[in-house]
Known about the structure:
mainly alpha
Amino acid sequence: MRLKHLVALIAALGCRSRTPSDRITKLAVDAAAGDPLARYNLGVELYRGDSLARDYARAAALWKQAMEQGNVDATNNYAYLLYYGLGVSPDRARAVTLWKQAAALGQPESHFHLGDAALAGTGTRADTLEAVARYRAAIAIAQQSHDSVDGLVANDATKALAGLPPLRNQDSVRADSLALLYARTPTRTRP
Length: 191
């Protein structure tokens, strides 16, 4: 790729500094070449707005491409943007469907978001027992991981559970059974 094309690509992404970091440049080049992990990571940079100007629409486009290439974390993040209408038109039912797909592949944050959706009854039917089961599954899966982000998910799920009234004994047993079933999914690996 010619240098002026690369500079134009970085400028189009809205790099905040005059000289993009080597990491951002490499991500942009690799994402343009179709690398799903680079698309995911560049989407993270655009979502956060730290090293690049915040751009939810571009993050959504990159995460959708990475999702279509099989990146489960991109599926979770794209669903989040869909659920809240950040950079894309809101579609909570579609977001819940995508979170279920990612959760089935061991993505703990998707379980957490499914718990929130079930608790609110938004994008799915309201179901406190399902919410508790999803939060417990998020914790179980996250605790098997050595990823610091998953640790944060476990903390958030623990806080969500602490804010709920206790379930009756039989409902608690059912929630535990569902959580065990949900947590048996394959644990996804992060490259």
